[in-house]
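For reference, the entry.
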Amino acid sequence: MMKFASFSANENQSRLINAAISGTVFLNSDDLASSAGQSLARLCLTNARINEVARSGATFRPVEGNTGTNATDVFIRQDGSTWYLAVFNYSSAVANKTLNLARLGISGTYTAWDLWSGSISSVSSATWNVTLGSRQAKLFRLGSGITSATGPTNQPLVIGSSTTLTTIASGTPPFTYTWIKNGALLPGLDENSITLNPVNQSDAGTYSVIVAGANGSVTNSAVLTVTNPPILTGQINNGTLMLSWPADHIGWQLQSQIGTLSTNWISVAGSMNTNRWIPLISSTTEAEFFRLVYP
């Protein structure tokens, strides 16, 4: 939970990076009805590089675990061949921190990408010097080699649902992302993911993303298919309830719950292999609810 109003630019940068590396919920608590709150939100919450780290939901670990009464100031996360490093300066004075790469668990030569400013530097020796202003933090992405990417993946979806198409880049930064649908450019979409909410029939198609890095580019594609939700019908015959749904929706799962309608749905075993089901209903049951879900 971040609050940017009444703090310096360096402090706000630190607050943003602190939230991004925590791996939990990423929220702003400023008054967005005010012009000041809106301005700070645009400044701090629209950095695609920082948002990509936050969106991963992965928590960084502290490099040092025994700092006495002082807060640890270096945090790290590895994602395949990519490293992320966050460095904090909690004091009001400028700090020059010398990082021991062996202590970080990093070896080799990397290109370091400052995810706030976008600046690029090289990391190749046994130590790495990072300069921080008063109460400032920096978040770096370290990578090397040719550009590669994982995702997005094919997805079957139902009208009215939501989905996020994501690609994860590796290699030498910096990276840019260009999204294309059915061969046509999707303007304004330049982050590593796109969200469709709610999904409409017109959203069906082939989505491609061109990931360009400092050492080449790669294009990945995924097919998004969209179907209408099935209609679940019930008919009582001689005291027996027959539930049915369209045959072209076999693979959907029947769920039920007894009593008061809540979120506690129970999946009916075997229902994914058919489009008809006769549930066992007790005469003493006050109410029973049924629904179909796509697994």
Q: What stands out?
A: The domain at 9-143 is CATH 2.60.40.1180 (Immunoglobulin-like). The radius of gyration is 25 Å. The longest helix spans residues 9-20. DSSP finds four helices and 23 strands in the chain.
